[in-house]
Amino acid sequence: MNHKLTDGGRVLRVGALARVEGEGAMHVAFDGADVADVQLRIYEPPRFYEAFLRGRAHTEPPDITARICGICPVAYQTSACWAVEDACGVGVPEPVRLMRRLLYCGEWIESHALHVFLLHAPDFLGYDGAIEMAADHADVVELGLRLKKAGNTLMEVVGGRSVHPVNVRVGGFYRFPSRTELGRLRPVLERALDDALVAVGLVSGFDFPDFEQPHEYLSLRADHGYPIEAGTEVVTSTGRSFPVSQFAQQIEETHVAHSNALHARLAGSDAPYVVGPLARYTLNSDRLSGVAREAARGAGLGERCRNPFRSIVVRAVEIVEACHEALAIIDGWADGSPPRVEVPPRAGEGYGASEAPRGTLFHRYVLDGAGIIQDAQIVPPTSQNQAAVEADLRTMAAAWSGLDDHALQHRCEQAIRSYDPCISCATHFLDLTVERS
Amino acid sequence: MTTRAMTGSCLVVGIGDPARGDDGVGLAVARAVADRALPGVYVCVHRDPTALMDLWAGRDLVVVVDAVRSGAVPGTVHRLAVGVGETPLPFPAWAASGRGTHAFGLAAVVELARALGRLPEHLVVVGVEAASFGCGYPLSTEVLAAVPVAAEQVVEEVRAHVRR
Asked: ipTM beyond 0.90?
């Protein structure tokens, strides 16, 4: 960190903002006590996935788009499968949906455990990072590592491996794990559920700054429980609801000069909206299992949560939900169902969405009669949240302009991390610049 | 993860991604060591360093092979003893990988394990100076030439440990 004076103004330059995925910078400019400008600048180069999907076969998006992210590949695989199957007019049988949900639970457990314990908890416990925190809170770090491992193990059994699973294909899976193989996961997941409940109690005791965000929340909503691998419709906190097929019409993506990731707005609105754990929980807390709802209540969460700093509590509750769901699917699993259906290509357009750990992830594909991709659109959660991150930073910077630069920087970083941004997905380190004049 | 050879008190782990040029050198060296079929030595390759703490639990000697970037001539083979009682790795070595991304790098895992008291008694990192990490590229000529040299270094670590 270095400070310098320019033209009587004050510029604070902070080194790489840590514990976020991707390369970007946050610029906050003050004019006196007023916030003049806030920009989340994502300078990670565009990755052109949508462009190089064109010309590929309709069977390829799950494997290609999984490479967008090493932490949430299942989200990309799942949204891609739904969209291609939709384009081809094929519905998958219930066992395929359940196995997608089970695999997705593994990703939620793994991704949320990493974020809660290794990336976000150090903010609340007063450490620069997990390694420094480990010296004083070894039990906390061990709890997180154990949960993360449980998620990885589930992904390995269902997906073939934990990073970029290889068992997923359009129409279902190459093979289903057997009831016996799944049964071996039971003790691991039972321990994980116990650990997750401890985690909820632990993080709910942290100190949270008072802050309520006013933004519209958006999430999938499902008939079958808390939205994870799919939803029947998209809903928002202002009462909008539309089918996944309308996503591209309802969400307008625009380019802004300071970012390589597209910004997104809801049609007819200039205000930012938010996807992710807070939105999911606020719009679906009634869909949680009894054990997760009880844990949420014990942690002091109401039916809605609008404080981004408390997202760590919601993530912990979602780990509980994922463990509970995984156990329920395993207990109800019967061998013998075909692991996939054929998805013959046809000309058409298809849409798919799922709830990535960071929020709603939408895919759209246009196929020709041979199944060759003519057009592809991927709307990742982090790009949808960019405008809201900027708006929150603007409000926080104004409210906390009296804080010294170090304290303000810490609050801002903590706020950004509460979104668990995955900048790689949206288009790697964040530099924070505070300019005062 | 692929495994060869038998279980034993010595573990050799190659870390890296074969699709990222010289990042695959750890895997190539581990395979060269596995081909020697050393008795009592368990050899495996892995893409994710965060799995290391579980892999090395209960082992007397662990040798981790990975690509490194120190500014030395590409193909240079480095040896770092980082086990219990050794000097911790310098902050810049692990800061980025332990903080900046969703993945923990090797150095960050070593220091996290040290903080948690989960380091093996004897842990040696054999590093091969990389030239490039280009997507889809094979090992560079310099790094490919260093594979047998690094493999010999690993074998020597095991022999020295057996003599102890």
From this structure: no
